[in-house]
Amino acid sequence: MSIAESISNRIKRMRKGRPFVRNVFERTGSRTAVNKALSRMVLSGSLERVARGVYMRPMRSRYTGKMIRANPISVLEAVARARGETIQIHGAEALRRLGLSVQMQVLPTFYTSGRTREIKIGNAVVRLRHASRRRLQQAGTKIGMALTALFYLGENGVTEQIAIKIANSLDHEEFNKLMTCKMPKWMRSALANCNWNARE
């Protein structure tokens, strides 16, 4: 079986609309051969290149019949898995999701354990900004979202009301996990004052 056939067969078993990186085929053949096989599939329409080194099987909406664009977060997660990086929601976006802000990011930004850079996904650009390990704790969870929102606001921006609202976004177990995270004293103090009686 040729390299192109081997790659094609593997891709046919992949879920449509789910991004993957070119590196998953690094043991299939040389980089040149893999690139050539992927390029041919893109030209034939059986594969879509959604970002540099990132591809997915095209997927149509069953309601409109139009092609569905790659989800930027799914693309970032695929890149992160391949590079062994941790990706965390940005503090500004965390505040919006928590109902503490209505501002949308002009340039979608995420924190990463990797280097700061920009990734072009289709016609959109997403920025990855290097952050400390403390900001990346519990990445991808409600706990991580609460934590990154608190870090983003800073000591002077976290009022008692804001701390209570952030705490209220978590259940008992999630709140307890949040309190086990590494954080500055001011943050721990603000959260410790959110006793359950005040939250109800």
Automatic annotation (TrEMBL):
One Pfam family assigned to this protein is DUF6088
Query: What name has this protein been given in UniProt?
Result: Type IV toxin-antitoxin system AbiEi family antitoxin domain-containing protein
**Per the UniProt entry, what species is this protein from, by scientific name?**
Pseudomonas urmiensis
